[in-house]
Amino acid sequence: MVERINPFHDLYLTEAIGPDSFVKLFSPIFMSQGLALYQPGNVILKGLQGSGKTMLLNLLKPETHIAYYKQKVEFPVPKAYRKFISAGINLRKSGIAEFAQLILPDAEAQDIKENALYFGDFVNYWVVDDLIRSIETVIDLNDDDFASEIGISIDKTLLNKFAHKLSDSLCWLGGLEEVESIESLKAQLRDRILNYRNYINLNIDSLPDKIKRTKTVIGEPISQAADLMREVGLIQKETNVFIRIDQYEELPTLDFSETDFGLLCQQIIHKALSSRSDSVSYRIGTRQYAWPSEPVIFSTTGILELKRDYSVVNIDDKLRRSENRSTWLFPYLVEDVFTRRLQLTDYKFYKKGKSVLTDAFGSSMTAKLKAEHLVINEKSRVNILKFDPEWPSEWNDYLKKLSIVDPMSAKLGEAWARQKDIKKRNIVFNPPKEDSLPWNKVYWKKERAEQALTQIASRNKQQLIWQGKDDIVGLSGGNILIFLFICQHIWDSWLRDTRGNNEVNSEILSPIRSEVQTLGILNASEEWQKKPIEGKQSKKRFSVIQQLGERYYKLLIDDLAMSYPGRNGFSIASYDLNRNKIVKDYLKLAVDYGDLQAIAHTSKSKGEKRRKFYLAPILCPAFRISYKHTKEPEYIKSSLIETMLNNNRNSTQVNSSLKNTLNNKSELTQQQEELNFTDKPE
Amino acid sequence: MSDYIENKVRKWGDRKCRETNLRLEYLEKKLFSSYKICLPPQPDFWARIQKWIENANGNEDLEKELFNSINEIFYIGPDEFDELFRRAYNGPIARWLIDLYDIDVTNIKTAKEALIEEVKHTLFCPISDSFNINHFYHINNIPGEADIRPEWRTLEMLGDQQQIRNLFNNNQIRNIVLLEDFVGGGSQASDSLIFANNFSDVVSILYVPLIICPEGLVNTEKLSQRLGFLFEPVLPLSVDMFVQKATFHNEPKQMDDLRTLANKTYLTVSNGQAPGARNPVDGRFLKPYYPLGWDQTGGLVVMHTNTPDNTLPMFHFKSVRWEPIFPRHSRNE
What are the structural domains of chain B? Predict the structure, then answer.
């Protein structure tokens, strides 16, 4: 039997593959949203971990463009924007972090600043060397058509002319000897880089005096190199030079021993962006949390100005679902990514529909169908109901009968009879006919279907069902890494389920069974839940997520009347948030790390501004709550989150405190009303 | 047809079981598939785990307990043994020779040469045949000039003392390293160590168990002080890695759970034989001895070569009514 592989085993495949495989795996779907990356001007490319930043930046590399050209695949960048060359540095892979290791705990501020300047000098030399390598890559292709498309000359003799002029430039502050050939220039650049690498690896005791005396100003040699390339005719005047600086989030982590080294390195990068020169444009790839709200420029009090000094492309915002589903890009992206991954394997589908995702996972069941699958036999169907002691037996029997044929409807009927409105409550004395069930009103039912499912599963001590394309896309929350993570776990679950089954070879009996998908998704959710252990304030973030998840599960299952079906998220008034810095900072961090999703919304109180927050959808299965947002979330004060932050999580304590609250229904209602009453806009 | 375990995990609907399932999937690939007693054509891990769960006879709570209990096993695979071999050679043995012959370690090159010279006069001798001495030689690239690799217990039984002295003399042996892969209470090795001590006038003796249980550590230390040989284990196991006979304050919950599970399944494991039962003829304890294994040790160790009998018998003892997850190969069934 051929060993079956998981096509999603490597989540970060596109970061590790060569240009040829890149062409097969890169999805051009996002391109329309990221065109700013291919136009002049500095761009900060923000995104959560694994959102595709590196992949988008790698598209700028000449070897990627050449791979498309050689394979005769249309390059995803529109023709109008193809005149560019790029160079760059990956702050993680280039060993920049090791600069920080040179700083002793008792280092003076001046020493730390000097090390930051070495960092800037290193970046200059690295990037100029990479820029020359990029040009040579194009020249080596020796293809006039390609070179003219990107606006580059393939006349090799120009390289020496360029080398002479660049080596003679004042931007090096005496750091380079004047040379006549490109080889000599490259040798000098690489010698400097080598010296730095030897120094940070402690192979030499100190940097050569010449380096100490000739530290360059960040960005200057890079701009100079680009200008001279244009001057000698290596690149055309209108050819853009893009400088990629990836993994910027590495820099804040360099603040070892409570020094500001990482901060200074960030400021060095900001300085490069502050030059407002037309020579080059920077592309900074960073995770959300790392880019400061006020990017200070090194050795100044000035800050970079949004729109003027840089613009932002936020991948997460572009891919998150908006109100209008038809313009939502993410489902198209994941469909394409999924198809491309499978094309690298031998998996085939018996059924071939329009959507490969649907072929593999099927359509998501309706809530009604999920309820029927959750409770299969008569006994368990009746068991989903909880009867009020004051209800007449006729009504109880009515619900029991209904539960056997339609458990979802019976559960909604139970909730209807628990509503505050006396007219609704009186239904217990006059059960409706099957064709005129009042709880079948479209919106009333739709808004409560997910809560009903949670309660049905809870009554039978079961897990919710998670399956089908819509669930998988919804749980991914607009994050491609999470989508791949879910697929990886479903595939693993399927591989385990068919372990030792010789009939299943490298083909897949599509769609994968829903119970197999549910287990895979639960595994993914529970694994993802452990992820906040990484990063800033990890323990607190983990603790708050736990408390929120448990809180919403309890609130949803104990609200038998289904009066608050939207309680899988919370809403805080903006004025409250603005005066509670601890909670505001925490919420920003939690959103930047992807633990929570933030959405602005209109308050129930006229004129009031509020922000609502939901757990990242992927976390919901682990807490047995729905990822879908319906009706109003829980209105809370920031102090509740502050209490959670101060609570060293002890699940027993959390549960018991919540239990006390829930045991007193009137208190809960009072709390809600009180919040509405006191939450006045400033 | 769906896999038995996957079906069970789905049916149980329990987060801990799901996490165990993922862990076992990983450990099976990395470790459990190396269990020598069950290499093909014996049933593989997944076939054994099915029978392991079927021990519960459909009692769902017991099924889950059995499934999750595998998490607590301390499995030592071939890679881990290789590392223990290396640690033994580069740690206790090298230190002992350096001290013994006052080797100057300030000059690495000459120190290494001097060490190798002493190794040529050292007999590496396993106490029992469970220790793979050839592999120990290979992994450490030990020069094998004296091409003799006897097992000490066999020497003890077959050779007379004069012949052993001749062996040392003819091969210029002046150091003996006695090796053992696993030591429980230390009683099995003590006779061999006492016998070895007869030669302390002509050879220096070092005893290196790779893994040793707390009781074995205490007993062997006492013996080494009494007889005067040197003793340094590579991996002494701490008391908290064993299930104790009775619960105690702050005991980890999983240990309490394991004790309860071992006790409640014991009569099924032993096919009705009471704990501590003895053979009426010779008075020897009958296997599997106790719910917590031989001498009520409460061990959780499984080695890729075999499972010690002081590990909980539910994990290794096969009876008419019980299928173990890591069946033990026993010399005297």
Answer: 4-72+241-316 (no CATH), 78-236 (3.40.50)
Residues with Cβ within 8 Å of A519's Cβ and at least 6 positions away in sequence, in order, are A493, B6, B9, B10, B18
Look up residue A83 and give its two tokens: 């005149």
CA distance A521 to B324: 32
Indicate the average pLDDT of chain A: 88
Segments forming the whole domain that contains residue A391: 367-459
Of the candidates A462, A499, A519, the beta carbon closest to that of B9 is on A519
Q: Is residue A506 part of a domain?
A: no
pLDDT-based confidence at A672, cuts 50/70/90? very low
pLDDT at A379 over 70: yes
The model carries a pTM of 0.85
Rounded CA gap, A626 and A643, in Å?
Answer: 25
Contacts of B15 in chain A (CB under 8 A): 522, 526, 622
Identify whether A606 is part of a domain: yes
Structure token digits, residue B151 = 């097992």
Q: Say if residue A277 is in the same domain as residue A397.
A: no
Give the mutation candidate from B16, B22, B46 for the A interface (greatest A CB count, under 10 A): B22
Contact B197, B176 (CB under 8 A): no
Q: What is the pLDDT of residues A420-474, one digit of tens each?
A: 889 889 999 999 998 889 999 999 999 999 999 999 999 998 889 999 999 999 9
C-alpha to C-alpha distance for B266 and B259, rounded to whole angstroms: 10
A462 touches chain B (CB under 8 A): yes
Shortest CA gap A644–chain B (Å) = 24
Q: Is the pLDDT of residue A599 over 90?
A: no
B287: Cβ contacts below 8 Å, ≥ 6 apart: B309, B313, B317, B330
Do residue A598 and residue A680 come from a single domain?
Answer: yes
Asked if B99 is an interface residue toward chain A (Cβ–Cβ < 8 A), one would say: no
ipTM: 0.81
Burial of A325 (0-12, 13-18, 19+ CB in 10 A): exposed
Total domain count for chain A? 3
Number of residues that this document lists for chain A: 682
How close B2 gets to chain A, by Cα (Å)? Answer: 5
Of B227 and A668, which is predicted with more confidence?
B227
- Nearest-neighbour CA in chain B from A519: distance (Å): 7
CA dist A451 and A458 (Å) reads: 10
pLDDT at A538 over 70: yes
Kindly state whether residues A226 and A99 are assigned to the same domain.
yes
Q: Which of A233, A294, A250 is nearest to A53 (CA)?
A: A250
3-class SS at A590?
helix
Question: Do A632 and A544 belong together in one domain?
Answer: yes
